[in-house]
Amino acid sequence: MLVLGIVFLLYYCRPERTYIEDPQATLHFSLDTVYFDTVFTTIGTTTKSFIIYNPHERFIKIGKILLAGGSNSVFRINVDGVSGSEFENFEIAPNDSMYVFVEATLNPNESPDILRIQDSITFSVNGNIQDIDLVAWGQNVHLYRDSVIDYSATWSADKPYLIIGGILVDTLQTLSIEEGVRIYMHRDAGIFIKGTLEMLGTVDNPVVVRGDRLESFYDDIPGQWFGIYFAPGSMNNLIDHADILNGTFGLWADSVVNHDQPVLTISNTEINRMGYDGILGRGTTITAYNTVIGDCGNSCIELLYEGSYEFTHCTFANYWNDGYSNRKTPAVYLANYYAYEDSLGEVILETRNIDKADFLNCIIFGNRANELVISKSEEGKLNYIFDRCITRFDEEKFNYYADPAFIGIINNADPKFDSLHVSYELDSLSPAIDRGLADYAEHPYDKDKKEDSRLSDKAPDLGAYERILK
Question: Is-contact 304 335, C-beta < 8 A?
């Protein structure tokens, strides 16, 4: 009777096991993606793992854990010591955790291209679904993960390049990228330049830099990787015949002005679908021609603080999709100051001189009423010229007729692009045809982005493309 009494007391006095049922209660994970480096087909990967945490003060029940690809997936998982592809009713105690192990074996393939294999593990908790991505690359690639390039190097087009985290080209070193090289950037990855970058593509074999999500759904999605950043001290960077797509920033140059050593020269290049700026220049020198900058969540071109800039035969066309965000900024923005808040929350303006900001035979247009804004602090210089350009801005707010720096402007005339969001070539009815100044089409500007002559008809067209009548 004594033993039975003790058992009775222990059973009925045991604290009740309570479960959290709040739909907002979620699991925490030690990572959000399990990815495998270069994976050779038929050879299994090493085993990777992640941890599931219950951060709550009550038990949490995972109704279902599912490997999305099921038994046909190239991935295999083990949950808390049990192998399989589908699991039900796992419990995790308060502030406790559980391991999940993952490995993969890829099937043979003959594809010459990078092959990204992806699956996911889903977790159903209180009616909500959370997931962990599983990613493997099924081709030999040159893999760089948080790498410092402290030597001068040349990348050739024998295999694609995959960058995870980022690469840093160190001071006094040069990274030369040959024609046809394809660079795939993992989420939030960046290319950081302290030395010198040379992207030397051709019209038939451009250098391509884009996100590593290869499904067609992601072709038009911005913000898939960070961007290319040129740190103070970086000099003599060259980008020719490159396609830079789907990042947050296309190019960000943040260097001290030095007119004897230009920071960045861009030619025959497309920068498109950027979550923020196509080109951000702060206190730097940039020369660009035959360059197209398309849809950006902020500005195609944002030039701040100080510097020297020249854009010849460029197309800035911002038709940003408001489904991503509500763009309130113009396609081209110039300001000879930089604004920031100090520790007390007061706005501080640091003013310096923009010695030169020339836009020659260019197109500046988009889907907003004002696609060109010039903001000048009287404490510094802001020298600019817009000569033979199509522009879009409200003439009631800005009387450009009284500004001698605006010459031969065609304002608020739709340039009639042949294709929006892609290449921005000119339609046969475009007002940009034959409206350029021939003086700005002399060598090296005598050929357009496709290497067609600008001097074979009446006059050069505005923008990066010459309309060739056939």
Answer: yes
